[in-house]
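When time allows, look over one protein, given below as sequence and tokens. The question is which stretches look regular and which look disordered:
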Amino acid sequence: MNKKTKKICVKGPASLKGKVNVGGSKNAVLPILAATLISDEESIIRNVPDMTDITVMIAMLRVLGKTVERNGSVVTVRKSDGLTGEAPYRLVRKLRASVLVMGGLAARKKNIRVALPGGCAIGTRPIDIHLKGFKKMGADIKVSKGFVNLNSSGLRSAVINLDYPSVGATENLAIAASRTEGETVLENIAREPEVEEMLAFLEAMGVEIEPSSRSVKIRGRKEFRPVDFTVMDDRIQAGTYLIAGALKGSKVEIDFSHPHVLEALIHKLEESGADVDVDGNKIRVCGPSRPMPSEIRTAPYPGFPTDLQAPFCAYLARTKGVSVVSEEVFENRFLHCAELMRMGADLEVKGESVIVTGVKNLTGAPVKACDLRGGAALIIAALSAKGLTEITGISHIERGYDNIVHILRSLGADIREEEEVNGESLNND
């Protein structure tokens, strides 16, 4: 049987012109979907993007016993006959965020079994912080044969100080606390906009939430309100298109619901010589002929987002000088560097940093996306490179970008998807 795979073909360099309407936030929708597990009331979630990660989470909810309907960008979650207590490996291995179902299941069932997570190869990303929190809430936890077995006579409220402001742990424990009697205090929490969005969803369900600068008090309840909730736009998609709009000769306008959450990126783009203007919900960017060098260091929000490190690294490949990119959120998040070097980038990885010595031109080449944001970096590089770049491994890109090929084509890029059968390309314009 012939095996078909897809690749993205980009002929550069491109000068992008036009407007982009950014869709809903994947990283907000995923925990919001997981949060529906605590309630038997109907939840209507709007502005849901069409991405494979969302599809996997919807499949997970159905396996766990929820009734889920999708109509375009609207997802409706309803009660079914009852929840199961096991999140299977066949789904969890496809999506690390599916471990977020642990919070809702643990709050409702005495015995649950959740497979250890899979996802992008960008480091181990252990769930130790999640498990320590559940132990503080009274759960007995055993890890065996690739599964987390969590047992309790019922979770109890607690004061939990997270070892690190982990986004996933903050979300998982907040979901569990929302259906746990009493007041739970989470300290040293993540304050990413997507976390705030999930907390807003829980409040819409009727949960009492009292946030402060780095902590949150959650008063749990057993009964909830039905919810009709519109999710914020995706800041990582918006950021990626802003970086693309800062390429030579480009002029792009991004329509984005929360421009202030991109301040760290906007500052670095302006530092590189790009002209950025924010007007209400519109962000306009015009690129320099060659960017000036920069130093970036990823950090929890409001610092520079780790999910934009790889695309910005590709942008810096053509600077007039030397840049330093430091990754302090995830280890092993420089897989894109070897592929960028195939295109002529001058990069040297040193521990948690990469030294980027700018080159005048990149050259198109066959490359492979090894993870989601690394795949976006290859597209950024391909747009600025001379000649044809063929990007394989695009299933990673599809996990976090809704119709990126169509959007870039609408901005004037020479980009298309092709199918391959046994190594031969089949044009799929």
